[in-house]
Amino acid sequence: MNMSEFENTEKPPAPPVRLTSTREVNLSQEHKPLPKEPDGKEEKKKGKVSKSNKSFNKIKDERPNISLPSNFEHTVHVGFDPHTGEFTGMPESWAKLLQNSNISKLEQKKNPQAVLDVLKYYETSTQEEKESKYMLNISKPSSKSSSSANSIQSNLSEKFAALSKDLPSKQESSSPSTPEDEEEEESQPPPIATRPDKTKSIYTKPIETEDKPNGAVAGNKTDKPKKKKMSDEEILEKLRTIVSIGDPNRKYTKMEKIGQGASGTVFIAIEVATGREVAIKTMNLSQQPKKELIINEILVMRENQNPNIVNYLDSYLIVDELWVVMEYLAGGSLTDVVTETCMDEGQIAAVCRECLQALEFLHENQVIHRDIKSDNILLGMDGSVKLTDFGFCAQLSPEQSKRSTMVGTPYWMAPEVVTRKQYGPKVDIWSLGIMAIEMIEGEPPYLNENPLRALYLIATNGKPEIKEKHKLSPVFQDLLDKCLEVDVDRRASASELLKHPFLRLAKPLAQLVPVILAAKEAQKH
Ligand code: G5X
User: What's the pLDDT tens digit per position in 37-58?
Assistant: First the structure.
């Protein structure tokens, strides 16, 4: 018929491919709505990455045999002399980190507290990369910026000093594997690509010590059992009351690994009874430093089902291995799309609306996701958009309506998290704003900065600069302003944002399919 002929010849052009993609795609520059300046650093990044990723994966793979170091903590007191502009009593490892951070002397002098905050923070995140999941006790400065010589206390890991030299190489990484990588990645097909280590989530121990009469000195290792800390046996006991009985190996077949995260390995499988595809996250409990988080993830997600959330389906416990069965989305993550292609505003608005629907639902139910970023947005082949990985979510209650644990991924973190204030659901809105920047620019602000300096910049700059803001429609600019508002009370809520005029630009979800396919195509190369 005429019509189909017409459609064949006039097929819409393929979506523009992002030239700055770290995954090495080279296509014509022409249809780029939001070009980015070429970045010299990009090249440098690539070379190193595969190597550092490789060793990182290696560490992860061997994790089963490495027990977490314990009792390697000591307390340090750091002061700042405003006259000399020097920190006093700073551990050598911190000094080294700071030296490599590109945080200038002037910046240090301008905001020494921010420097100390982020140093402690960074300590934790690097710690995590070595140990995979990361429980560090970090005590908050007992009184913030009260004196010019701020005294802070923090626990240091013995390994810490060694970490600073790894930092520069922990740059980017999603570049295609070099031949030598192949054996490491054989079980990681495209849907979930590797990301730079520095885009991985971190979690630090709550700063509850500050409430203690004896202040932070009460020491962190002594108070570990405080607050309903459950024993391993109690954890298993509790899990047994939650999970289904039966052998999941008989209910699901054709398991194929699709991802490896801090908390476990993810497989795709077929549910025998229905023939549908599911994703299964398996976690070896003996390797999980924070088992309560896993129970939390299951309990919270079992109760909170929504079309814009990767829904929990079932769970099983096999000896000490926990299986969490959930919906499978075949379109890959939003990261794949933002790094490989350029989205137009209609597509960005559609993704924002879907994410805001998920957040409105969660926040109404007093749940904070705490790790909103493109990596945690999965796409269906029909263009559906769903929020995933609730491994760090927090269920608020009337007794505890605010949180202080430092959770998330540094580049996406709200200022109130970085500066260690009490925070609530609006941290997700800030992160959504950062994710919107990913959809515009391909990556979050400061990704090329030393991560430590990035944290400093979040703490001190507040709202990040958007490179070519004037090229965005006024309604989009306004939405970004409302997400990236430092003042939490003035920052919009999810329900408010759902009424924002920018969302009226949203295209039908089916129009996300071309960028999903383009991202998949780009990743093949
Ligand atoms: N394509 C899902 C998760 C979601 C709510 C409890 C964590 C990964 C990876 C992952 C890949 C999926 C899942 C589905 C695709 C993940 C989670 C989670 C929950 C219910 C469990 C990690 N790291 N997926 N489809 N990928 O590679 O919190």
Answer: 334 333 333 333 333 333 333 3
- What is the CA angle 514-15-371, rounded to 5? 70
- Rounded CA-CA distance 457/418 in Å is 10
Ligand 1 pocket by C-beta < 6 Å: which residues?
191-192, 258-259, 261, 266, 279, 281, 297, 301, 310, 312, 324, 326, 328-329, 378, 388-391
DSSP 21-43: -TT-----STT-SS-----HHHH
Residues 160-189: pLDDT tens digits?
Answer: 222 233 333 333 333 333 333 333 334 444
**H/E stretch holding 325:** strand 321-327
**What number does the ligand 1 atom closest to the CA of 309 have?**
5
Structural contact between residues 342 and 387, judged by C-beta atoms closer than 8 angstroms: no
| 432/216 Cα distance (integer angstroms) | 33
CB distance 76 to 153 below 8 Å: yes
Indicate the pTM of the whole model: 0.75
Q: Quick one: tokens of 50?
A: 């595969």
Q: Residue 223: its pLDDT value, please?
A: 38
Catalytic residue among 117, 371, 375, 389: 371
CA of residue 427 to ligand 1 center, whole Å: 21
At 388-446, the pLDDT tens digits run: 999 999 999 999 999 988 888 899 999 999 988 899 999 999 999 999 999 999 999 99
**Given the CA of residue 332, which atom of ligand 1 is nearest to it?**
1
Q: Is 401 exposed, middle or buried (0-12, 13-18, 19+ CB in 10 A)?
A: exposed
41: Cα separation from own chain's centroid: 23
Active site residue 371: yes
Round to whole Å and give the CA distance between 329 and 514: 16
How remote is the CA of residue 105 from the centroid of ligand 1, in Å? 42
Contacts of 277 (CB under 8 A, 6+ apart): 268, 269, 270, 271, 328, 330
User: Which atom of ligand 1 sits closest to the CA of residue 259?
Assistant: 27
CB atoms within 10 A of CB 522: 22
Residue nearest to atom 21 of ligand 1 (CA): 389
The closest residue, in CA terms, to atom 17 on ligand 1 is 389
